[in-house]
Amino acid sequence: MVSVKDACVKRIKALCEEKNIRPNELANRSGLTPSTVYSIFDEKRKDINISTIKILCDGFDMELGEFFSSEEFENLDQEIK
């Protein structure tokens, strides 16, 4: 089962790899602390805030829509159980 949070983490990691950016550098570019970025990757964390995704998009120099326009967000499982 893939959740929205899991898809976001996968997308963030893919963008870091694609743009050759380490999580610490992404934090600096975004104005977040490195611990905030690393906490997003924590499997125990259940969700991620859209505002945080927007801030990360700013660090990636991309639009929010571009972030969500990827295969990670195709066919997500229903969040309501």
Helix-strand layout with pairing:
Blueprint: H1 4-18, H2 23-30, H3 34-41, H4 50-60, H5 64-68
Q: Please, could you describe this protein's structure?
A:
- The chain has one domain: lambda repressor-like DNA-binding domains (434 Repressor (Amino-terminal Domain)).
- Helices cover 58% and strands 0% of the residues.
- It contains 5 helices and no strands.
- Helix 2 (23-30) packs across helix 3 and helix 2 crosses helix 4 (50-60).
- The longest helix is centred in the first third of the chain and has 15 residues, at 4-18.
- The model has no long low-confidence stretch (mean pLDDT 91).
Please summarize what this structure is.
By secondary structure, the protein is mainly α. Helix content is 58%, strand content 0%. 12% of the residues are buried.
**CATH class category label:** Mainly Alpha
Task: Say how many strands there are.
Answer: 0
Q: Tally the helices: what do you get?
A: 5
Largest sheet: none
**Whole-number tally of structural domains:** 1
What integer is the average pLDDT? 91
Q: Would you give the CATH topology?
A: 434 Repressor (Amino-terminal Domain)
Spatial separation of the terminal alpha carbons? 12 Å
Shape: globular
| Architecture (CATH level 2) name | Orthogonal Bundle
CATH superfamily: lambda repressor-like DNA-binding domains
Portion in strands: under 5%
Helix content: 55-70%
* SS-derived structural category: mainly alpha
Order of helices and strands: HHHHH
Runs in which pLDDT lies below 50 for 5 or more consecutive residues are none
Cα gyration radius (Å): 12 Å
